[in-house]
Amino acid sequence: MKLPGEHIFVTGGAKGIGAAIVLDCAVNGAKVSFVDIDETAGKKLESELTSSGHKVSFAKADVANFEQLKSAFGALVSKLGDVTGVVNNAGVNSHADPVKMTDKEWDDFFAIDMKSIWLTAKLALPAMRKVNKGAIVNICSIHGRLTYPNFFPYGAAKSAVLGLTRNLALDEGKFNIRVNAVSPGYILTDLTKSWLKAESGREERSLSIQPSGRMGEPSEVAKVVTFLLSEKASFVSGADWAVDGGLGARSA
Ligand code: NAP
Predict the structure, then answer these.
(1) Would you call 186 a catalytic residue per the annotation?
(2) Does ligand 1 have an atom closer than 6 angstroms to the CB of 190?
(3) Which residues are paired to 227 by β-bridges?
(4) 7-189+218-246 has CATH 3.40.50.720 classification
(5) 14 CB within 6 A, ligand 1
């Protein structure tokens, strides 16, 4: 049990990496609340984990909408108590053309992949500061440092997530609140699987550059997140943890 007595709040927790984080935190003894825009998947995961004896609560919210997020956060805190850890996982890909992308598309994308990290900080930090304890983990990406053609402006948003991680880590350190990033490489979620299948030969090419010859599983990201949320990482803050099987060490 790495997280006894903690209340961990996860965004985008209904599927993929987020769902693996919800599960790993729960099996490590935390009460877990999560939001997602997919209400069906969120309710299904909540009911599966609750029926196996875990304290898990779901509320529907779009992380890009502060009023929705605030109301969902308030409802979850009233059920499970003050939040002691936050995982900012909700994120979407972007494959925009810089000429054709509209202002609205730009704002909508950055609202999810970047601004939501500030919004959850606004909601969670007051209670954390009061008790001088807390941990935040931001799910970034290998694209925070090295990106890929036709991912505009995903690399920019994920680089900004690293900057936000450093800002928050420096400013909240005096309250004993640690803030770290986790940067996954290729992780086999539905999102990745459909991207790999979208172009003939893409999966084979992607596999051929993996140092370990395979892609990662959502649970392999979740284990690192749980560690960073836990007391075992008590002197780790402002860091970016790559979970990419070594891909980020490759030059070409
Ligand atoms: P995923 O399988 O698509 O799961 C993300 C979940 O977040 C989905 O349930 C999604 O709902 C939900 N969501 C999307 N927009 C939301 C919003 N505005 N508000 C609330 N929930 C929202 O994605 P994933 O692959 O697990 O990725 C999770 C995180 O890891 C993202 O930040 C991603 O950038 C990052 N990441 C993933 C990989 C990878 O290989 N999978 C690699 C590096 C980084 P819908 O399905 O209905 O949209």
Answers:
(1) no
(2) yes
(3) none
(4) yes
(5) yes
Is-cis flag, bond preceding 149, omega within 30?
no
**Assigned token pair, 167:** 């800002």
Tens of pLDDT, residue by residue over 116-158, are 999 999 999 999 999 999 999 999 999 999 999 999 999 999 9
Ranges of the chain whose pLDDT falls below 70: none
Residue 169 in contact with ligand 1 by CB distance below 6 A: no
Write down the pTM of the prediction.
0.98
pLDDT at 252: 77
Contacts of residue 47, Cβ cutoff 8 Å, sequence gap at least 6: none
**Closest protein CA for atom 2 of ligand 1:** 16
∠ CA(19), CA(179), CA(36), 5° rounding? 25
Contact status, residue 80 vs residue 7, Cβ threshold 8 Å: yes
- Tokens matching residue 101: 């992308």
The single residue of 34, 58, 154, 186 carrying the catalytic annotation is 154
Ligand 1 centroid, distance to 90 Cα (angstroms): 5
Question: Alpha-carbon distance 32 to 141, whole Å?
Answer: 23
**Domain extents in the chain:** 7-189+218-246
Closest atom of ligand 1 relative to the 42 alpha carbon = 9
With b meaning 16 or more CB within 10 Å and e meaning fewer, what string describes 201-227?
A: eebeebeeebeeeebbebebbbebbbb
Q: What is the pLDDT of residue 116?
A: 98
Please tell me the chain's helix, strand, coil percentages from 3-state DSSP, rounded to the nearest 5. 50, 15, 35
How far CA 77 is from CA of 22, 54, 57, 222, 234, in Å, comes to: 16, 16, 10, 22, 24
